[in-house]
Design a protein that fits this description.
Layout lengths: L5 H21 L20 H18 L4 H17 L6 H18 L1 H9 L14 H6 L3 H7 L15 H9 L2 H25 L6 H5 L4 H21 L1 H10 L4 H22 L1 H9 L13
Helix pairs in contact: 1-2, 1-3, 1-4, 1-11, 2-4, 3-9, 3-11, 8-9, 8-11, 9-11, 12-13
Length: 296
């Protein structure tokens, strides 16, 4: 928003809904009935209904900005790897079927556009400014500092690093279905970070130049979504999971100290992570550019 780049804003608006749709298509608890009880408000759909809805969702993503198919693919990869490494392959066949069928539905809906793209050489073109590789030149070397700072222009520690505390804590204290969700969320974030750094460091060979048409801030969106998802799953079971962890101390008084201490760390990290937003609000301009659209 501060830089006036609409493609990342569109990604933040659209991709969380896509993640929810894909998680529901996989059918793992709490978004389905596999591996536990479904969560409140969960709707059970048939396979072909999920294929159609997912296809319409992917088609809508392509309409908003074609380059958003790249972070959507990152989300799918993170879900698959995270599910396998969480110790289960439940729902992967269904997820693959839904995603594959959804891609076919979306491709049929956009067949004329895809035909024109193929004639033009197959280069991604962002409808909201995502097709310009100049954003990579402006950002310079991104690396892990940009990932931990959740900003392409971060070149050192920023308060955003504090937002990693709760997801990391959730990895250690979450249990059962909460842990499964946290692991999948972390791999969504890791997939986005790996692709971002891989493009920046030119590790992807022939595929790198084509992917540089995607705004680097768009590739940070899966990282942010993964962290938010892991934080939400951690908070959902924070009380019970922390109580279970505290009981491992085998002393009531020490258990309370551990639980209260961890809760204090979580609250402090969230406060530090939101500090830039609060300081930006005090100025009234939220840190936006002081030039107008003509000068920009």
């Amino acid at each position: 928003l501060r830089g006036g780049r609409l493609s990342p804003l569109a990604a933040y608006a659209v991709l969380p809904w896509v993640v929810r749709r894909l998680a529901g298509a996989q059918g793992m608890a709490p978004y389905g009935i596999r591996g536990g009880d479904p969560g409140p408000g969960t709707r059970r759909r048939g396979l072909w209904s999920d294929v159609l809805v997912t296809g319409l969702a992917l088609a809508a993503v392509f309409v908003v900005d074609p380059v958003l198919v790249v972070p959507a693919g990152v989300v799918v990869l993170g879900l698959v790897v995270g599910t396998v490494l969480s110790g289960s392959i439940d729902g992967l066949t269904r997820l693959a079927t839904v995603v594959g069928g959804g891609i076919v539905v979306a491709a049929l809906m956009h067949l004329p556009v895809l035909s024109i793209t193929a004639v033009d050489g197959g280069r991604l073109s962002g409808g909201l400014g995502g097709g310009d590789s100049g954003a990579w030149d402006v950002a310079g070397s991104i690396g892990l500092s940009g990932v931990f700072g959740l900003a392409t222009d971060a070149h050192g520690p920023t308060p955003a690093v504090a937002l990693f505390v709760l997801p990391v804590l959730a990895l250690f204290v979450a249990r059962g279905r909460h842990l499964s969700v946290v692991v999948r969320a972390w791999f969504v974030a890791a997939a986005g970070a790996a692709l971002l750094v891989g493009i920046d460091q030119e590790w992807l060979g022939a595929g790198g130049p084509a992917l540089r048409s995607v705004d680097p801030a768009v590739l940070l969106v899966p990282v942010a979504i993964g962290l938010a998802w892991a934080s939400a799953a951690g908070v959902a079971g924070l009380g019970a999971d922390l109580a279970h962890l505290a009981r491992q101390v085998h002393a009531v008084r020490s258990a309370r100290v551990v639980r209260n201490g961890l809760l204090g760390v979580v609250m402090l990290s969230l406060a530090v992570g939101t500090l830039p937003v609060l300081t930006g609000s005090f100025a009234g301009d939220w840190g936006t550019s002081r030039g107008d659209l003509v000068s920009a």
